[in-house]
Specification:
7 helices, elongated, alpha/beta, seven-stranded mixed β-barrel
Length: about 270
């Protein structure tokens, strides 16, 4: 492949010094509580200043749901779980009969947020009303909303594999408005691992009950947003927008520290 000389010149300027330092820092720095997220933004701004790049810190006021912990208690055993963001926080616990609604996993990442296929009889309103629903896959927004509308008092998602995954079970992206607010889950939602889910499926088939506990913090939080503007030399009225998030539910670099490092170098 023949590269344009301008691309070659740009590539020759790429260095991993500044971005790798960011990756190493973010690899050990939790970025999920609002104060930590704000410090992440300040850290990015400091790194930009250190390499001579002007940066504005905009003040955003965001409506956030911050997940902390969850559990499922059944037959004297407590199973670890993760609460799904924007669902109901009920740390005191909610007890109910467990009912299993089988489903299939998404066929690909393109259909990840689609509702998993399920037998309509398994998801009948008469079967779900007043029950805690145990469902296979991820607690995607469509399924959670449907179960809530059919009278379910809680949802437990059995994730694939041995891990429990963070996630958002609301189709509202950003701050809810009057049109979107009715889609916000009003019931507790949590995720369990596949091995634990198998035990709970067996319990549901016996008509057993569980106590579901979730703890989240929801409300308005200040969040600084670092912004760098690089004016064009030939057509400054046109622009390309590059962006990435610097919050993360887990300590690590996959989502989205490596993206932040790339943005910093650009």
């Amino acid at each position: 492949m023949i590269l344009d000389s301008r691309i070659e010149a740009a590539m020759a300027q790429v260095s991993d010094v500044a971005p790798w330092a960011l990756v190493e820092h973010f690899a050990t720095f939790p970025r999920w509580k609002p104060a930590d997220v704000a410090e992440s933004a300040q850290d990015i701004a400091r790194r930009l200043a250190a390499v001579g790049v002007p940066c504005d810190l905009l003040d955003a006021n965001l409506y956030l749901s911050i997940p902390y912990e969850a559990s499922v208690e059944a037959a004297g055993i407590t199973y670890a779980a993760k609460p799904l963001a924007y669902a109901r926080s009920i740390p005191e616990g909610l007890t109910g009969v467990l009912v299993h609604v089988p489903g299939t996993l998404a066929a690909s990442t393109a259909s990840f947020y689609d509702k998993n296929r399920q037998n309509e009889a398994d998801a009948a309103e008469t079967r779900l009303r007043g029950k805690i629903v145990l469902t296979d896959g991820f607690a995607n927004p469509q399924k959670v909303l449907e179960f809530q509308q059919k009278g379910a008092i809680g949802v437990i998602a059995v994730n694939p594999g041995v891990d429990r995954h963070w996630g958002i079970c609301s189709s509202i992206w950003g701050t809810p408005d009057l049109d979107g607010l009715p889609r916000k889950p009003m019931i507790p939602v949590a995720a369990v691992s596949n091995p634990d889910g198998a035990v709970l499926v067996a319990l549901a088939q016996q008509g057993g009950s569980v106590t579901l506990k979730t703890r989240l913090e929801e409300g308005w939080f200040a969040s600084p947003v670092p912004v760098v503007t690089i004016p064009g030399a030939e057509e400054p009225e046109k622009f390309v927008l590059l962006h990435g998030h610097y919050d993360s539910w887990d300590v690590g670099v996959g989502d989205n520290a490596t993206g932040d490092a790339t943005m910093l170098e650009i």
